[in-house]
Specification:
Length: 213
């Protein structure tokens, strides 16, 4: 049964977070607010849960899910962290920056056809951080059906994803519909794969040799 919680109410927020954590542990999906748009999340280490996420969105494995983390330190347990990655994370996390890095050989992730990499971000939203602190890394993609606009409120997310999601955490409208900027740090030179919340000029203040794809 789908449940929705108003996170502007302290008691509902606490109850919603408990229910969301339990749902993630059961391999179910949750919708959560972030600082960009609403996301739909699942246990990043459960291939079955990630497959459920992709199916809910109508998305194939050729479009793998990014991962959200609750702290910069969580990056070290997932990917090979280069000096450039650390510089970018120090400057822009939490916030609208996603870094693409090679995941550690010791980490079992099946997010789709990733080619051995994973896109990771730390969102700047208190509800998202509280959830991530309790669950650990989550596979999170925008809470929309593929081909539709990314939702800026819980109503829009629920209207598209419906009963495929176990728990909706309603944090009110998000601040902006602009997606995160994506920077590939797998090579010697960082590459901007998608311009978004953080401009190329701002990124170059930290990594002057940034290339644009």
């Amino acid at each position: 049964m789908t449940r929705r919680f108003d996170c502007s109410d302290a008691s509902e927020r606490a109850a919603g977070l408990r229910e969301a954590v339990a749902a993630v542990r059961r391999g179910e999906l949750v919708v959560l607010p972030t600082d960009t748009v609403y996301g739909v999340g699942a246990d990043a280490f459960s291939a079955e849960a990630v497959a459920r996420l992709l199916a809910a969105k109508g998305r194939g494995r050729n479009m793998p899910s990014p991962v959200l983390v609750g702290s910069p330190e969580a990056l070290d347990g997932l990917v090979e962290v280069t000096e450039r990655a650390r510089e970018l994370v120090a400057a822009f996390w939490p916030g609208g920056l996603t870094v693409v890095a090679r995941h550690l050989a010791s980490v079992e992730l099946d997010l789709g056809e990733t080619g051995g990499t994973v896109a990771v971000r730390m969102p700047a939203h208190p509800v998202a951080i509280e959830l991530l602190d309790a669950t650990g890394p989550l596979a999170v993609s925008s809470a929309n059906l593929t081909g539709h606009d990314s939702p800026q409120d819980c109503d829009a997310a629920q209207g598209m994803l419906g009963d495929s999601v176990a728990v909706y955490l309603d944090g009110g409208p998000t601040a902006a519909a602009v997606p995160s900027s994506i920077v590939d740090v797998t090579g010697e030179v960082p590459v901007l794969l998608r311009a978004g919340a953080i401009t190329a000029d701002r990124l170059r203040e930290v990594v002057p040799d940034l290339r644009e794809s």
